[in-house]
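Sample pair:
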Amino acid sequence: MANTLGIRGYDYLELYVGSARMVAFWWAKAMGLDIVGYKGPETGSPDRMSFYLTKNDLKFVITSTIKAERCEVSAFVSEHGDGVKRWSMEVDDVKHVFDQATKNGAVPVIPPREYKDDNGVFIEAAIKLYDDTQLMFVNRDDYKGIHRPGFDEPRQKITLDRQDTGIKNIDHIVGNVRVNEMNMWASYFEKALEFETFVDFGPGDISTKYSALLSKVVRSSDSAIRNPINEPYEGLKRSQIEEYIDEYNGSGVQHIAIATDDIISSISALRANGVEFLSVPDTYYEDQKAKGFEIKENWDDLQERGILVDNEGDGYLLQLFTKPIGDRPTLFLEIIQRQGGSEGFGHGNFQALFEAIERDQMARGSL
């Protein structure tokens, strides 16, 4: 596929939350990101507060309202809980991508705009994604400030006792959508942004004795952007996708997969920093060892940390999933390491993963 739209890769994600100060502290302490930017009343934003956090190529904005009046932020949090409001792609030419996307069926949300200050020009536009989620196009080639105009250095310098998590960049972002919406959204990406569907899990491919789902993975050229899209499928009990849609009150971003070059060290640090992960039984590792495929890592090290392994396609991948990071059982994170050019998503781990999620659902009384 030719990259005619000039899509470079993931840029930032913005979460709307109940308390930006508290959630930003969690991302800094638990995930090891640095708070490098701030926007609030002191910087000319009287109604909301945002913290900008980075680590390597990761960029997150955590935003909450600070006014009692109902607004976009409070309405989102009331409806969905803490969650991803928008995620962005860095592109060569914002107007070009926006014009092509809307010409081919994307729903416009924010037309191309330039924001200027003494540090240069930041350009963005947005189209609609799942329900009220936004997909942003951004270009900061001519901007040298902190994130974008309106942000300044943090007002408070925080010294944290934490371990270096070694996380690097966004690997993929997963959306959960209602029944009969998966094909619609896959087509939306394909038509609007010239993506292709390169993985398609149909009935029976992803299931346990209780629940099932359907999934497609769409990607841009060179796999710079990879986005799985899940929808519920008929099962004996309420699936994790149905639980998400019920608790989130609609379609949205289910999890963010974050890459590392050393998952053993990353998981050790994240656990030490207080991140909670799903657990799998020891029998999983007995079954994996019996398959006989070779890995560079020590199996005992993986088992001790609960890391999953899958050799789907070229190479193999290692992954582990957190428990929900907010109060509602909706948004969670995945830590992933790809070895030998792996392009998969852990199909061989799906049953172990979903059974782990179901155990968590049972503990909450929702299965």
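The chain has two domains: 7-139, 167-364.
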